């Protein structure tokens, strides 16, 4: 019997999406044939390519989308273009599963699931309406997206969520199965390895948004020679951080965009991982940030915000410091860690232990594959 076929739909170009890449790789290894339908908004990526045995097919912006300055209004056109391309791919060789990553791709999956023999998986990376309401300039649209999610989510044969708090959120929408698959990382090191930097190095690689206290963090690094900081990624905070790095004495380095493959090694090369999020936002209070999981597999203490889900996890496991969301609290925490190498090592060893016991991709992969088996799709010779 041929391998079961999965179409994943993402609203990005599929270049820096570790959750999608990890799930696609695990499904491929288990005998599923995976195609990723991605959205190349800038029109600079290959229309089609193979990435680690995964076929990637991309759609691009229409003329109408390019003429509209508001990306939120591109979505309906994207849904039409992506649905048309998904149906073309389905006619070429039928899919058994359409796996939609986040709410902004779910209408495509709902259209495809109407075809016989297609099961819909809704993979909710975030609380999407909260993103619209709290992280964009389209707050009045939050209610519309919440209603869209409540209408479409029950069509899914399976809902995957990225954090435990999302379980309750979706339980109010559907009676179908809801399974938590967190954004953990694969175990990369057999034993705990202490860092070997002459002075404490703090690293952050991710989205450079203003609601993460990143510019104050960069300012502290510039003004304090007792530690060094590395900041990588892209976003609105990139420009001021780059300017501060240029004025620093080498103790603040701006890395720009860092490849997915380099994130964990760079984290492992540091002493401390930075992961502060503004707790005034519902999204951040409930989030399970990637930085947390990267710090664990690297065996490094992580700085997080008190009063959040991840803050509670860090405090319970004693694998970092949960602090108030302020520049003063950050300064105090950095000084505490800088002065006490034994504390950093104790927290780092606890982080490494937590990764091995609980938060690693091997465990999440088993959960993902178990959930897929419950869909009842045909089994390929390599699946298992």
List keywords for this structure.
Rossmann fold, 8-stranded mixed beta sheet, alpha/beta, 2 domains, 384 residues
How does this structure look, described?
This protein is α/β, with parallel strands linked by helices. The chain has helices at residues 18-29, 63-67, 75-92, 106-112, 128-134, 142-152, 165-171, 214-223, 238-247, 260-268, 282-286, 290-298, 309-317, 327-339, 341-357, 361-373, and strands spanning 5-9, 33-40, 48-51, 54-60, 97-101, 119-124, 158-161, 178-180, 200-207, 227-234, 252-256, 272-274, 302-305, 320-323. The protein folds into 2 domains: 5-184 and 361-373, Glycogen Phosphorylase B (Rossmann fold), CATH 3.40.50.2000; 200-357, Rossmann fold (3-Layer(aba) Sandwich). The chain is built from 16 helices and 14 strands. The strands form 2 sheets. An 8-stranded mixed beta sheet has the order 3-4-2-1-5-6-7-8, sandwiched between helices. Helix 13 (309-317) links the parallel strand 13 (302-305) and strand 14. The two termini are 14 Å apart.
CATH class of the largest domain: Alpha Beta
CATH superfamily of the largest domain: Glycogen Phosphorylase B
- Give a quick account of the main beta sheet: strands, pairing sense, barrel closure: 8 strands, mixed
Provide the number of structural domains: 2
On the 0 to 100 scale, the average pLDDT is 94
Would you spell out the secondary-structure blueprint of this structure?
Blueprint: E1 5-9, H1 18-29, E2 33-40, E3 48-51, E4 54-60, H2 63-67, H3 75-92, E5 97-101, H4 106-112, E6 119-124, H5 128-134, H6 142-152, E7 158-161, H7 165-171, E8 178-180, E9 200-207, H8 214-223, E10 227-234, H9 238-247, E11 252-256, H10 260-268, E12 272-274, H11 282-286, H12 290-298, E13 302-305, H13 309-317, E14 320-323, H14 327-339, H15 341-357, H16 361-373
Parallel strand pairs: 1-2, 1-5, 2-4, 5-6, 6-7, 7-8, 9-10, 9-12, 10-11, 12-13, 13-14
Antiparallel strand pairs: 3-4
């Amino acid at each position: 019997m041929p391998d079961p076929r999965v179409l994943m739909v993402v609203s990005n170009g599929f270049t820096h999406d570790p959750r999608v890449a990890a799930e696609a790789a695990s499904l491929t290894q288990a005998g599923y044939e995976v195609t990723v339908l991605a959205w190349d908004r800038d029109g600079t990526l290959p229309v089609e390519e193979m990435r680690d045995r995964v076929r990637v097919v991309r759609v691009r912006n229409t003329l109408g989308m390019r003429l509209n300055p508001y990306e939120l209004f591109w979505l309906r056109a994207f849904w039409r273009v992506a649905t048309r391309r998904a149906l073309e791919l389905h006619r070429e060789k039928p899919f058994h599963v359409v796996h939609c990553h986040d709410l902004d791709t779910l209408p495509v999956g709902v259209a495809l699931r109407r075809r016989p023999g297609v099961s819909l998986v809704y993979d909710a990376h975030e609380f999407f309406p909260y993103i619209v309401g709290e992280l964009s300039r389209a707050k009045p649209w939050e209610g519309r997206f919440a209603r869209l999610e409540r209408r479409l989510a029950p069509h899914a044969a399976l809902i995957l969520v990225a954090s435990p708090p999302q379980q309750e959120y979706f339980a109010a929408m559907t009676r179908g199965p809801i399974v938590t698959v967190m954004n953990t990382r694969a175990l990369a090191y057999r034993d705990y390895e202490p860092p070997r930097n002459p002075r404490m190095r703090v690293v952050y690689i991710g989205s450079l948004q203003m609601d993460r206290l990143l510019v104050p963090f960069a300012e502290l690094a510039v003004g304090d020679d007792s530690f060094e900081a590395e900041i990588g990624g892209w976003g609105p905070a990139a420009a001021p951080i780059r300017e501060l790095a240029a004025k620093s004495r080498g103790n603040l380095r701006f890395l720009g965009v860092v490849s997915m493959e380099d994130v964990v090694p760079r984290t492992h090369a540091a002493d401390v991982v930075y992961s502060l999020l503004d707790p005034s936002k519902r999204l951040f209070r409930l989030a399970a940030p990637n930085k947390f999981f990267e710090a664990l597999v690297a065996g490094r203490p992580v700085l997080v915000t008190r009063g959040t889900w991840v803050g509670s996890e860090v405090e319970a496991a004693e694998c970092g410091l949960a602090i108030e969301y302020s520049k003063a609290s950050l300064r105090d925490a950095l000084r505490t860690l800088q002065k006490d190498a034994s504390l950093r090592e104790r927290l780092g060893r606890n982080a490494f232990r937590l990764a091995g016991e609980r938060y690693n991709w091997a465990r999440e992969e088993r959960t993902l594959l178990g959930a897929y088996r419950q869909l009842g799709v045909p089994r390929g010779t390599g699946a298992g």
